[in-house]
Amino acid sequence: MSDNTIYDVVIIGGGIAGLTAALHLSKNNYNVCLIEKNTYPNHKVCGEYVSNEVLEYLAYLEIYPFKCGATTITQFELSTKKGKLLSARLPLGGFGISRYALDNLLFQKAKDNITTVFDTVATINATTEEGIAMLQNGMTIKGKIMVGAHGKRSIIDKSLQRNFILRKSHWLGIKAHYEYDFPENKVALHTFDGGYCGLSKTETGAVNACYLVRYQSFKKIGNIDCFQKEVLSANPHLKTFFTNAKPIFKEPKVISQISFEEKQPVDHHVFMIGDSAGLIHPLCGNGIAMAIHSAKLFVDTYLEHRKNGSLDFIELEETYTKKWNTTFQKRLIAGRRIQRLFLSSTFTENLLTIGKIFPFLIPQIIKKTHGNPISI
Ligand SMILES: Cc1cc2nc3c(=O)[nH]c(=O)nc-3n(C[C@H](O)[C@H](O)[C@H](O)COP(=O)(O)OP(=O)(O)OC[C@H]3O[C@@H](n4cnc5c(N)ncnc54)[C@H](O)[C@@H]3O)c2cc1C
């Protein structure tokens, strides 16, 4: 079976990046098809802290997170494995909202003006003339432009034989919501052996606890409950949290094989946005903002190239690649370096000591992994 329409743009993946691009393109009257394997709303493994740099652009798309209860976050707290604590003001600040709510907010806004297909894309075949997405149910969907918004890791990356997918990744992400008394205006990052755990409040009042850990470290214990009791709780702040917080989810959500390797913003004539183009280390709390920003970057570049009527595909590929690298590459490199340093106990201990003497340093480090507010 196949849909005979040839869409202006086919977007594969309806997470933050895919939905943002779909909304922006449909606002400009383009014929968009979005293909998503899951239904809405659903929970995703994510720290659920969003940098304020996206607020103005979201308002342009008529998305208002605070209207559905997002919390205003202005303070950052960091602790070493032994529990030494440092607080700092977030230079730009952000907000707390669950992915359950945020993705759904975007989808509800987009759905009436786009075609949405709920299935898994098995392969994409794209040329400079046309692209075809082959779904697992055998259906094919055609577009003039194919956009990969399929996140960190997908069967699509395997079918395209993207370089990063050939190498194993050793990171695991675990997340759950809890009832717990926690300040609304704070995002906390507590380090432990082999990883770090973020805590922040969401729009429901629940506290999201999300941690990233090396698989080798987790494997030694192999069970989430015991791992939280034995390894995370060696940090006294996490001990207090996991002893007193009441889980809301039946079971935590887990994802594995999280890769932070370099990717290409255009691969096999598919325009990549969000994590499909590159994932920043979660401790930076900037992945959602980058996903939104990269969607805008792609749409803006596409609209510019369509202005003259005909579209020079190769030129579009080159311009988008260049713009993507200029906008995000430095941030990704800074994120990689900071994460490497963060996992060393000596570094975090020293950082806390220095940060207490020179408090302006911490906001400076945070700025390195964030962008300026996205202009319309
Ligand atoms: C542990 C952890 C904590 C994080 N914490 C934060 C944080 O606090 N703040 C922050 O800003 N960022 C954070 N991030 C990063 C953030 O989650 C991502 O950068 C963001 O989700 C990227 O959005 P996306 O749209 O690119 O991908 P996603 O949101 O993952 O969306 C991809 C979509 O594609 C769909 N899909 C995949 N394959 C297919 C297919 N074959 N066919 C159809 N659909 C498909 C998926 O179902 C999904 O809906 C964190 C990441 C991790 C791993």
Helix content: 25-40%
SSE order in H/E notation? EHEEHEEHEEEEHEEEEHHHEEEEHHHH
Q: Number of helix segments?
A: 11
What value does the Rg take, in angstroms? Answer: 21 Å
**CATH C-level category:** Alpha Beta
The SS-based structural class is alpha/beta
**DSSP strand content:** 25-35%
Assembly classification: single chain
Largest sheet: 9 strands, mixed
Net shape: globular
Number of strands: 17
Which superfamily, in CATH terms, is the homologous superfamily? FAD/NAD(P)-binding domain
| Integer tally of domains | 1
Task: Look at the structure and give the mean pLDDT.
Answer: 93
Distance between the termini: 40 Å
CATH architecture descriptor text: 3-Layer(bba) Sandwich
Pfam families: DAO (PF01266)
Keywords: Oxidoreductase
InterPro entries: FAD-dep_OxRdtase, FAD/NAD-bd_sf, Geranylgeranyl_reductase
GO molecular function: oxidoreductase activity
Structure keywords:
376 residues; alpha/beta; FAD/NAD(P)-binding domain; nine-stranded mixed beta sheet; eight-stranded mixed beta sheet; 11 helices; 17 strands; binds flavin-adenine dinucleotide
Protein architecture, described:
The chain is an alpha/beta fold and 376 residues long. It has a single domain (2-168, 258-368), classed as FAD/NAD(P)-binding domain, CATH 3.50.50.60. It is 34% helix and 28% strand. It has 11 helices and 17 strands. The protein has helices at residues 16-27, 55-60, 99-110, 155-159, 215-219, 224-230, 236-244, 287-306, 313-342, 345-357, 361-368, and strands at residues 2-12, 32-36, 49-51, 71-79, 85-96, 115-118, 121-126, 131-135, 140-148, 171-179, 186-192, 195-201, 207-214, 246-247, 253-255, 266-267, 270-272. Strands 3, 4, 5, 10, 11, 12, 13, 14 and 15 form a 9-stranded mixed β-sheet that branches. The radius of gyration is 21 Å and the shape is globular. The two termini are 40 Å apart. The model has no long low-confidence stretch (mean pLDDT 93). The structure holds flavin-adenine dinucleotide (FAD). Residues 12-18, 35-38, 44-50, 120-121, 149-151, 154-156, 173, 198, 210, 212, 258, 274-275, 279, 282, 285-289, 291 line the site of flavin-adenine dinucleotide (FAD). Flavin-adenine dinucleotide binds next to α1, β2, β3, α4 and β13.
